[in-house]
Structures are given as C-alpha cells and as structure tokens.
Amino acid sequence: MRRKRKPLTFRLTQVLTGHGCFGDYLCRTAQREPTTECHDCGAAVDSAQHTLEVCPRWAALRQSLTSVLGGDLSLPSIIIAMLGDDESWKAMVSFYETVMSQKEADEWVREEAADVASIRGRRLGVRRRRYLTRLQ
C-alpha cells in the first residue's frame, strides 16, 4: 500500500485480476473463445496462474523470473516479493509485459484468420469499423 515508486501497468493488472488474454477469461467471461484451453500447450485451462507457473512456452522467461523471486510463484508469494523490493517488482513487470504482449498478438492473429470461428469474429467486425472510421 505504501509503495509509490512503481505503478501497476495495464498488463500487470490483467494478470493480477485474471482478466486478460487467457483462455479461461476469454471463454467464460468475454465469450470470445470456444474453449478455456491454452493455445500454446493444449492444457485444459489457460489462466494467469497457468501462464505464470506451468505453460512451457514461457519456460525461459519463467527461469529468469524465478532467479529473482524464488520458486514459489503463487499469487500471495509474488505480491509479497513485488512489494518487498524493486528488483522483484521489475522482474514481474518485465515478465508479464513480454508475455501479455505476445499473447495479445497471438489473439489478434487468431481473430484475423480467414477460417475464424464465429465466436471470435464478433469482435473483429467492431475493430475493422473503428479502423475504417479513423481513416475517414
């Protein structure tokens, strides 16, 4: 609470709330994915915790993170570590800025695919309209 040096970033907030480019959120809440599964490793549920602790796609980045935070990547532990020192804060922000930007880019690719499922295509039309409106 007293930490004033480092703000919460948009992507870090997505991770802490679970409201981001995670299959679980995109399926159950946003209703933009047909399943909760992880597109990277095929796990049944893609969540913020899955991305942080399990998904093999992020293993190299995770190794750098655990060298700073230690092996316990549970939500309470990472919050305590982040609030404890600047190095932990920076490591966590760096990890999730990189991961979430890549997950967002992957989501865009899936949405723009020619064979896009109708559930993903709903949002695509809105984005195209916004883009075309800006061009006029």
Distance between the termini: 46 Å
Major beta sheet summary = none
Output mean pLDDT: 84
Structural class: mainly alpha
Give the number of helices: 7
What gyration radius follows from the Cα positions, in whole Å?
17 Å
Strand content: under 5%
By DSSP, the count of extended strands is: 0
Q: State the share of residues found in helices, binned by percent.
A: 55-70%
Low-confidence stretches: none
* Oligomer kind: single chain
Inertia-based shape? globular
What series of H and E elements makes up the topology? HHHHHHH
In short:
The chain contains 7 helices and no strands. It has 136 residues and is an all-alpha fold.
How are the SSEs ordered, and which strands pair?
Elements: H1 10-17, H2 23-28, H3 48-53, H4 59-69, H5 75-84, H6 86-112, H7 118-135
Protein name: Reverse transcriptase
Structure, described:
This is Reverse transcriptase. It comes from Euphydryas editha (Edith's checkerspot). The protein is mainly alpha-helical and 136 residues long. Helix content is 63%, strand content 0%. The protein has seven helices and no strands. It has helices spanning 10-17, 23-28, 48-53, 59-69, 75-84, 86-112, 118-135. Helix 4 (59-69) runs antiparallel to helix 6 (86-112). The mean pLDDT is 84.
